[in-house]
Amino acid sequence: MDLVVASRAFVAVARHGSFTVGAAALHIPQSVASRRVSALEEHLGGALLDRSSRTVTLTPFGAGLLPAAQRLIRLADTLELDAERARRRPFRLTVPAICPPAALARLVAAARTHGLHLELSTVERADGAALIAVPPDVGVWVVPLGLAAVAEPVTHVENLRPAKADPGGTGRRLWIQPEDDVPHVRDRVIRAGAATGLRPAQIVPAGSLVEAAAEALSGDDLLLCSAAQAADLGLRWAPAADLDTARGYDVTAGPRAELTALRTLLHVPVGHCLGIS
């Protein structure tokens, strides 16, 4: 016999003075409430309710045990609430600043369907996990990068080479945002530029994405970015045939189950946050 379930029936009937009304309050049939109270009486060894009149009343035995039954129900309710809170304990995840809010919201919603309650931040914390940049060949998520501009997209880095007739000119610049100012991206871009005849000043690491995007939006310069970023900024994007580079990401730290969920069950929504179309 389930003591908690039977005690709920006992307390409800005693409170309302009726098996019918007490059962309705619990959303169970009257016959079920009657059986549960009878089972509790048999288990405890005495009659809890006096059924001799139209209105059900407590027996002296029942009056003495009613407070204990009420405490048992409160403890059971508290246990269930604590269990729910434990299941909803947030999993703190640091995400790159480039992640758009709409994609992050969809990630949080998708995670909840798998019982994972994400608490996201762009500021790294010691008590959580983080999506970190890694070389694309070891990345769980890989985001292809290309060249974005206001005008026609550039498909080859060599097209940025200054004209020979203008030996002193700087030429169009290629801006690298902070997210890509890491060796496995930046160094590849610099090597590609040198191999195709670009001047060193044409490849510029920016202090912020806003700065880099503003330079591309206000002139002929280009922004190294993902297709999703270019679309958000209103820039025209194309992969560069002579610049095979990408962002790689993995998630580190945290309980193994949550990390596995992010890498597998939530692989697609995490990818959308990072710029994978």
From TrEMBL:
Residues 8-59 form the HTH lysR-type domain. Pfam families: HTH_1 (PF00126). It comes from the Bacteria. Transmembrane segments: none annotated. Keywords: DNA-binding, Transcription, Transcription regulation. GO terms for molecular function: DNA binding. InterPro entries: LysR_HTH_N (IPR000847), WH-like_DNA-bd_sf (IPR036388), WH_DNA-bd_sf (IPR036390). Belongs to the LysR transcriptional regulatory family. PANTHER family: LYSR FAMILY TRANSCRIPTIONAL REGULATOR, TRANSCRIPTIONAL DUAL REGULATOR HCAR-RELATED. This is DNA-binding transcriptional LysR family regulator. It comes from Catenuloplanes nepalensis. The lineage of its organism: Bacteria, Bacillati, Actinomycetota, Actinomycetes, Micromonosporales.
